[in-house]
Amino acid sequence: MSALLEVRDLTVRLRVGGADREVITGTTLEIAEGESMGLVGESGSGKSMTAKAIARLLPAGATVEGSVRFAGTDVLGLSGADLRRHRAKVAVVFQDPRAHINPVRRIDDFMTESLRTLEDVPRAQARTRAADALEEVGIDDPARRLRQFPHELSGGMLQRVMIATALLSRPLLLLADECTTALDVTTQAEVMAILDDLRRDRGLSMLFITHDLELAGAVCDRTSVMYAGQVVETSAAHRLHADPLHPYSAALVQARPDVTSTADRLVAIPGRPVSAFEAPSGCRFAPRCPHALDGCRGHEQTLADLDAGRVRCERAATLRGRLLDPTESPTESEETADA
Amino acid sequence: MLRFLLRRGAMLVATLLVASFAVYGALDLAPGSPIAALTGGRTPSPEVLAELNARYHLDDPFLVRYWNWLTAALTGDLGQSIPLRENVSTLIGQRIGVTASLVALTSLVIVVGGVGLGLLGALRKGAVDTGVVLVSTVSAAMPSFAAAVVLQFLFGVRLGWLPVLGTGTGFADSLKHLVLPALALAATSVALVTRVTRTAVREELDKEHVQTAVSRGLPWSSVVRRHVLRNAAIPITTVVGLTVASLIALSAVVETAFGLNGLGAYLVQAALNKDFAVVQGISLVLVVAFVVTNLLVDLAYALLDPRVALGSRAS
Amino acid sequence: MSIPVPSGVPAGVAAEVLDPVAEVEAAAARGGLRRVRLGVLGWVSLVVVALAAVLAVVGPLVRPFDPNLSDLSFAYVGPYGSHLLGFDGQGRDLFSRLLVGARTTFLGAAFVALVAVAVGSGLAVTAAWFGGRVDRWVSAGLDVVFAFPGILLAVVAAAVFGAGLMSAGLALAVAYSPYIARVLRSAALRERAMAYVAALEVQGFGAWRLCLRHLLPNISGLVVAQGTILFGFAMVDLAAISFLGLGVQSPQADWGVMVSEGKTGLLQGYPMESLTAVLCIVVVVSAVSFLGDRLESAGKQAHR
To answer: How far apart are CA C49 and CA C37, in angstroms?
Structure first.
């Protein structure tokens, strides 16, 4: 397995009202061919901006540092036709299909537009392929659906249209940006299952962006957790859920109600999430971290290998294995550390 | 679709019926007998009066006269101009061409100028956009009669490029005589259409579905044409249609200013001369044109936007 | 604060409104008049409009010369001594005529806007308050009036009642009222559906009192904005009608009449009368419509 996508030290600043605001700081991650990587974090953590940077969809006025390499090419340096070719190879499934599909064009037109425009596939042939793709995502009577307009379809169905469309142009990487958040719970599960199946069948790589750690665990090989514009941990997906390395990951795990066990400990993370530009110096999570020491605030934390993963916490080795332990109270651990 | 057309058709007929009644009724109630205009203020002998009343059916009850006028109007007969002793339909026929060409040329100016400038402003930011905003602000402040006078002075008197009065003869000459009037009539409307186009295209550029199209690697020209312009066409078409509808009555001002022998200028003359049959006839024609144009705008709106149930114009 | 709930009123209506006083105040802050940020252009516009308004009242008192005193030997003579702008085609002092002309132009338009606002808001509130059949009839009536463009109605009015400012003004007011009625009707409908109105109704307040004391004041921001916009339209249309010879009658000084009378001179190379009158109209109308836009967008933001 070689890396299909390599993001190195990616820093992004957006222009907001005349001032540059940092939204991502030194993000590093890589996705191998056929691998599915989860990107988890609260809103404002920079996960969507990471995806936008990879697809080169950042708003005008954004400044980007670092490097993004995709299938051997330097993505940040692309322009014109090369850039369009890159975008065609990276398919994006957006969060809100109703807003992301042109409301005045038919489903047929939406699905076949890339094929017709970029690959010169004749309309009839493109339509047949679109109908097949619709069947694959479990939509009945595709011929009728193709003739309809987006407002005539339900949200779940539209998201399936979006997924079918994304796969239609045979991309190498799928960027799924909170693609089930706008759907209701049962539809969510259906859409997720379809997406997972089709991706595995095709051996497609995926960056799966979500705020749901457990969902990421279910469909991803590895998961990266972002906080305040930085990746704070990357681990095997199942491992991250059972044995997180970073206090923030642990807090996310504990903050989520678990349906399989009785929720006797549901812990809210104190404080509010911050964006990169308003983050404190030193460890960005320190103000909310139950395990933070004075030293954590003193200097930037770096991403270091630990076990099979990577973590941005100087205390990770000390805290290893104890973060989820209900008998381990934060104050105790702090006392131990102070001693 | 058929039901929508039938319902709108019925509404159209009802509106026109009430409107025609209002036009006919108002002028019928006007103080002063049309005979007075005919006899030039002299008191006619009872025999002459009786004969005139009989000839113009002035003795019939109001509703009868209205009914006769309306049914005749449907066959294209709008009655007689009493002062001119001429058929109103003939008088209208002689002048409707000028007004129609004026409105058509003005519409062209509005579409090309307004939509063009608006697109330019929306797609090219910076200096070009500032220029577009400036031009549209200046022309928005120019009522048609003011624009007429300024254009006449600049291009007619000072530069001597274009004729400032009269209708002209032959196609090319007539067209030349219509250039300044069309520009004057278009001034305010171009600004309005420019503004709406610019805003609509800007808004559409920021839409998520446009981002989707970009993310799929489609060429920018195709994104703009197939998504931005296609969707922005909905509000643009509506504002162009409503603007053109408003020109129909406004043409009276410009025709008068440029001495064009059109319907509007003639309507004004007829009003001053108390030639009621002509005022009724031309008003009816203008109201029909106005209402029909509005109906077409509604239709176009419904055709362009599949989300809209036919007949509900978003305002 | 407790609200007596008479039988037959769904409990939810009253239960939703725990404090009608607070709701009424909130509604007033939302829809009523409030401070509007003007900006530099806004202030300039305000000064221009205020100046025009002052002129409309005192113009005839401060004019340096008799605006109707004609001396043909001075026809088309340019600026000369205390005659700041020179003379028109009949040898009358141009500057004096412009000062005096502000009156008909400005007060005429104010009259049109006031009548249109009164009629339009009356219809709107009536339609919104009673709803149902009343609403349908009012809306149908408005649709018919919509079929008559303002200028056309003014021409017909001139034919019926004779040319003059009064018939032109009334015709325009009638033609404008459906525009304002439509906008205000939807605002009034929104306001009518607010819980505080139901709460006050439940407390036994009469329809008149509710409409005049609460509903209308709460959409007053919109009324003022629409009235200002119509005022600008009315100035343009009245001037156009006077230009056509169907409004203010010569020899009375009026900006529209002056544009028309000056045309003879303009075509002979003496543009002063027409162009100065055009300039006056354009400047004042631009200022009015700028203020109208500001008021309207301020209102829209408040409703967001």
So the answer is: 17
Rounded to whole angstroms, the Cα distance separating B35 from B24 reads 17
pLDDT tens, C185-244? Answer: 888 888 877 778 777 877 777 777 777 777 777 778 888 888 888 888 888 888 889 888
Same domain for A131 and A58, yes or no, is yes
**Residue span of the structural domain in which A257 resides:** 226-338
SS3 label, residue A6: strand
ipTM confidence score: 0.83
- State pLDDT tens for residues A76-107: 888 888 999 999 899 999 888 899 999 999 99
Set of chain A residues whose Cβ sits within 8 Å of the Cβ of B309 = none
- For residue A154, which amino acid is it? S
Helix A185-202 to helix A155-168 angle (10° resolution) is 10
Domains and CATH numbers, chain B: 95-314 (1.10.3720.10)
For residue C219, the Cα-to-chain-centroid distance in whole angstroms is 16
Q: Under an 8 A CB cutoff, do B217 and A87 touch? A: yes
Pick from A171, A202, A220: which residue ends a domain?
A220
**Backbone phi, then psi, for A305, in 5-degree steps?**
-70, 140
Whether A103 sits inside 8 A of B217 (CB atoms) is no
Question: Which among B194, B206, B200 is positioned nearest to B304, based on CA atoms?
Answer: B200
Residue A269 contacts residue A251 (beta carbons within 8 Å) = yes
Indicate if A262 and A200 belong to the same structural domain: no
Q: CA B156, CA B164: separation in Å to the nearest integer?
A: 6
Min Cα distance B253 → chain C (Å) is: 7
Look up residue B52 and give its two tokens: 């005139």
Contact C149 B246 (CB under 8 A): yes
User: Token match 């997924």: residue?
Assistant: A163
Ordered strands of the A304-306 beta sheet: A90-93, A173-177, A205-210, A36-40, A222-227, A230-236, A309-311, A304-306
Among candidate residues A165, A198, A220, the one where a domain is terminated? A220
For the ranges A40-44, A132-136, A195-199, the lowest mean pLDDT is seen at A40-44
Q: Considering CB atoms only, which of B143, B157, B279 is closest to C269?
A: B157
